[in-house]
Amino acid sequence: MPAAELIELWRGNLQEGVHRGHAVIHDGRDIMAAWGDPDAIIFPRSSCKMVQALPMMESGAADAAGLGPEQLALACASHNGSVQHVEKVGAWLSGLGLGEHDLRCGCHKPWDKAEATRLTCSHHAPNQLHNNCSGKHAGFLTWTQHAGVGPEYVEIDHPLQQAIRQATAEVAGEEPAGVGIDGCSAPNFAGSISGLARSMAAFANPANDARGRGMGRLVDAMRAHPELVAGEGRACTELMRAMGGRVAVKTGAEAVYIAIIPEKKLGVALKIEDGGTRASEAAIAALLVHLGMLDEAHPIVGKLLRDPMKNWRGIEVGGLRLAPGFPGHSRVA
Amino acid sequence: MPAAELIELWRGNLQEGVHRGHAVIHDGRDIMAAWGDPDAIIFPRSSCKMVQALPMMESGAADAAGLGPEQLALACASHNGSVQHVEKVGAWLSGLGLGEHDLRCGCHKPWDKAEATRLTCSHHAPNQLHNNCSGKHAGFLTWTQHAGVGPEYVEIDHPLQQAIRQATAEVAGEEPAGVGIDGCSAPNFAGSISGLARSMAAFANPANDARGRGMGRLVDAMRAHPELVAGEGRACTELMRAMGGRVAVKTGAEAVYIAIIPEKKLGVALKIEDGGTRASEAAIAALLVHLGMLDEAHPIVGKLLRDPMKNWRGIEVGGLRLAPGFPGHSRVA
C-alpha cells in the first residue's frame, strides 16, 4: 500500500503542500487502525530508545547501578542538552566511575537555546554530554559495565547491540529488516511500522516478568519526567504534560513518533515519509485527540496543528490541516 | 497526475524516506520535459522575485534611482542578512531618502552565522534589513517612490501589487490561480509549475522591449553577483559560482527552485510537495547536471546530492539518491 496523505499545508485558501506517511494503532495482538502501509519498513530512530534500554533493565544492571526514574527517563530521552540534562547525565556517569570520554555518541550543539547561546558566546564547544542521546549512551555504559564487556558498545557485534537486536525482534514480533547507523553511532534496527506499534503496545501492557517489569518502569519514568525526555518547548515534553502523564510519547529523527497508552493497552507508531517533523508532531497530536487522550482544546494541539501560521509581522498566512480520512479530520481540522 | 518520487533518503542499505514533487523544463513555447504534474498549482514563494521586480524595471524606476547590478541582484535575492547585505540594502534605501522603518518585510534572525552570533552575543535584535527579502522590498519602495503612490506597498490592492499580478500573469501565460501572503508579507501569486517554468524561459530568452531588457538586466545581475542573491555556503550562490555565471538559479520557501538558462533559452521550475529543502536542492543540482550546465564532478553536486551523509562522529550513515526515472538517475546516483 502507498503512503497516505496525513497532513496538509495551506496558504491563504490554497493547499501549498502535503506530508504523506504511515500510522498504526496496535493492541499487542492486532492492528486496531492503520493509515498508509502498516507493512512499510522504517527506521524507528530515537523513537525506540525504550526498547534499546531493555537489556539494562532485564539484566539487573539498572538496579545494580541504583538508577532511579530520572536516569531511566534520560535513557529513553532525546534531550535538549540543557544544563539539567548535562549535569544529570554527567553525575550518572560519575556514579559508574566513568566520564564524558567514555561516551560514543559524538558532539552536537545543544538544542536548548540558553545553553547553546552560552557555549557560542563564551566560545566553548559542546561535549558529548550535550548530545541528545547521551542518556541512552549512559544506559548503554551501565549495561556494559554490569556485563563486564568491552567499551566499544556501539559496534554492531558488541554483546549489547546483539542483546538489543534480540529484544527488538521479540517485542516487535518480527526479525529486523536491516540495520543502519544512527546519528549517535548506535545501530538502529529497521522494521515494519506495525511491528513498532506492536512493540509500543507491549510497553503499554507489560507482562509480569523481568522484561515486563522493566518496560513498566521505563514508561513510568518517561511519564513522570517529561522534561527529561525532551526539554522545555519540545513536543514530547509538552504533549506528556498536557495528558497529565497518562501517555508516554517519543519522537525519532526523520519524522517518527510513538505513543504508549497504558490505560488503553494500546501502542501507536507513525512515520512521515519525507522526514518532516512539523507533520509527525501534528499527526501524533491528532491521533492522541482521536483516541481521547488529549483535549483538542489544549494549547499544545493549537501549537502543533490548529493554530494559524503567522509571518514575521504576525500576519496569519496559513496553517496545517489534517488530510481527509486521517483520524479526527472532522473534529480537529 | 500525482507527484513523482524525485529524491530518496537511504540509511545503510535501506531506503529511509522519499521526497515527491513536480519539475518542468520549458522552452517558452512548450514543455520540454516534466516529472510529476506540470499542471500542479504551487506558490512560487521567493523563486519569483525576478518577476516581482519587473514593474521596477519596466517603469524606469530602477534607472531613475540609478540602480546598478548589485541592487538588481539584491532585488531578486533571499539573502543571508550578512553585514554586506545589510549595508548595501541600507545604502540603497538611504539613496531613496528612505530608511529601514519604511520596509514592510518584518524582522527575522539573519541566516548568516557571523551576523547572527554578533547579534545574539551583543543582545541586539535583528532589524528589517536582516530579513532575507529586504532587497526585494527596497525594490518595491523604488517603484513606489517613482510612481508617487502610497507607502503600504504590500497591500494586495496597492498599485505595485496589481502591476506585479499583471506581470506574473503575462510572463506565465496564465491567470494566477490564487494569492497568498508570503513570510515577508508581500502577496504571492499561485500558478502552475509549468507556468513558472514558462516564466523562467521568458527570462532566459527575453524580447527586445522594455520588459525584455529589464528581464535581461535582472538575470545578468543575478549571475554577476551570486553572493548577493543568497550568501556564503548557500546553494543558490554556490550553484551559480559552480556554473561560472552561465545560469541564474533561485530557491523559494517550501522547496521551490527555478533555473534560468540563457544559452539554452530554457527555464526550469521544480517543487517538492513536502517542502523539504534538502530535496529541492538535490533535485535542481540533478537537473542542471542532466542539462549539461553543471559538472557532476563539482563539489557542490557532492554537497547537495552525492556525498555520503555523516553522523556526529564522522561515520558514513547514508545519503540522498535520485529516484528511478528522475533525470541523471543513471549518471548521478
UniProtKB/TrEMBL annotation, chains A, B:
Q: Which domain of life is it from?
A: Bacteria
Per the UniProt record, one Pfam family is Asparaginase_II
> Entry's PANTHER family?
L-ASPARAGINASE, PUTATIVE (AFU_ORTHOLOGUE AFUA_3G11890)-RELATED
Q: Would you tell me the protein name for this molecule?
A: Asparaginase
Origin species: Paracoccus aurantiacus
